[in-house]
Design goal:
Number of helices: 17
Strand order of the largest sheet: 5-2-1-6-7-8
Helix content: 25-40%
Oligomer: single chain
Number of strands: 13
Strand content: 5-15%
Shape: elongated
CATH superfamily of the largest domain: Crotonobetainyl-coa:carnitine coa-transferase, domain 1
Radius of gyration: 25 Å
Order of helices and strands: HEHEEEHEHEHHEHHEHHEEHHHHEHHEEH
Distance between the termini: 37 Å
CATH architecture of the largest domain: 3-Layer(aba) Sandwich
């Protein structure tokens, strides 16, 4: 489905969305920047995705169906796609004309790239002093590593995340999905909204500098504080925890898996009672998470042995009766079949001109009065370029006639 520039699908709904009237130019590529713009688009911002005529590399990344890139459909949903070559003078002028009316610009080129094209923040904000320029890079806009190339994987490695992930005797473990980019995208969306809120008081835009490395470092809790105070480094404990036990994944009799976590003392007591060892509750070491961690092998043996004798449904039912936290280890089809996720509409099917319909994850959080909405999937390359050019031509004609 192609949504014309300047038109909205279901105007009455869009007008009530919380970011209705906010205009965003998304000139970023791949994951982190486009995800930030997607989140804003989900809540009604009018996002114009600007691509080079060869297309965002994301169009050639990951799984496709009938030649149509599926990740593109998700990350660029609710956006309007135009192609401009920002190295060409004519397209540069068109780009600046779009920026002139925008509230936010999101980019994730290596530092200095926009400046080399004559489109640095100084130029953009001269055209539009109220513009928020959100810049997403691996290491930030300054510092010794600013010019290095980098993506989420680099941030996951250098943040300390990989070193604390994996089995104790195994290699450091990287996430199997772009976690660092997703965290940076969330930070970039939040930074953009904070800057817009500040603009309401100052009347001025500003530059938001988002580093993927710093987004991941910030999400890792107190590891820096722990090292500073006690020289304690995180260690790899597999699926376990350094803060509490039991916390692990356990295999059931039918070959499926469940995850168990007991961060609270009362929950740990209920779990150990359920598996037949209520006497351990009275042990002094059982009274704290750190104490239970010292006896992790004993606890895991008891919990794991009890679970191994039962099918998953029996395990889950028993834990629920005991008011203890357990969850089945789901694959994607399990997520789609789960009655809770279905009731919450975690996945939504949207119309698409290339694939007919596309099923994808829904807006990731809910607002009671002004909810977000997935209105259409990521459009084909340049789907709205002609309409953009027509609009700019009409605006020039109106200006010259006054």
């Amino acid at each position: 489905m192609v949504i014309p520039l300047g038109e909205r699908q279901d105007d009455s709904v869009c007008a009530r969305m919380p970011l209705a009237g906010v205009t965003v130019v998304d000139v970023s590529t791949l994951f982190a920047g486009p995800y930030a713009a997607q989140l804003l688009a989900d809540f009604g911002a009018e996002v114009t995705k600007v691509e080079h005529p060869s297309g965002d590399p994301l169009r050639r990344f990951g799984q496709s169906h009938d030649g149509v890139p599926l990740l593109w459909k998700v990350l660029n949903r609710n956006k309007k796609c135009v192609t401009l070559d920002l190295k060409r003078a004519e397209d540069k002028d068109r780009f600046l004309a779009v920026v002139r009316d925008a509230d936010v610009l999101i980019e994730n080129f290596r530092p200095g790239t926009l400046e080399r094209w004559g489109l640095g923040p100084d130029v953009l904000r001269e055209v539009n002093p109220a513009l928020v320029v959100t810049r997403v890079t691996a290491f930030g806009q300054d510092g010794p590593y600013a010019d290095r190339p980098g993506f989420g994987t680099i941030a996951e490695a250098m943040s300390g995340l990989a070193s604390m992930s994996g089995e104790p005797d195994g290699a450091p473990l990287l996430p199997s999905f772009p976690l660092g980019d997703a965290l940076a995208g969330l930070h970039a969306a939040l930074a953009s909204m904070i800057a817009l809120h500040a603009r309401g008081r100052t009347g001025r835009g500003q530059i938001a500098d988002v580093a993927i490395t710093e987004a991941v470092i910030g999400a890792l809790g107190a590891q820096i504080t722990g090292y500073d105070t006690a020289r304690a480094k995180p260690v790899r404990v597999g699926n376990g925890s350094t803060n509490n036990a039991p916390r692990n994944v356990y295999r059931c009799a039918d070959g499926t898996w469940v995850a168990v976590s007991a961060p609270a003392q009362s929950v740990a007591e209920r779990v150990i009672t359920l598996v037949g060892r209520p006497d351990l509750v009275d042990e002094p070491w059982f009274a704290t998470g750190a104490g239970r961690v010292r006896y992790r092998a004993l606890i895991d043996g008891l919990v794991g042995g009890w679970i191994a004798d039962r099918d998953r449904d029996e395990v889950v039912a028993a834990f629920e009766r005991a008011d203890a936290a357990v969850a089945p280890i789901y694959e994607v089809d399990d997520v789609l079949d789960d009655p809770h996720f279905r009731a919450r509409e975690v996945a939504v099917r949207v119309p698409d001109g290339e694939l007919g319909t596309v099923l994808m994850q829904n807006v990731p959080f809910r607002l009671s009065e002004t909810p977000g909405r997935v209105r259409w999937a990521g459009p084909p390359l340049g789907a709205h370029t002609d309409e953009l050019l027509a609009r700019l031509s009409a605006e020039r004609g109106t200006t010259s006639g006054t």
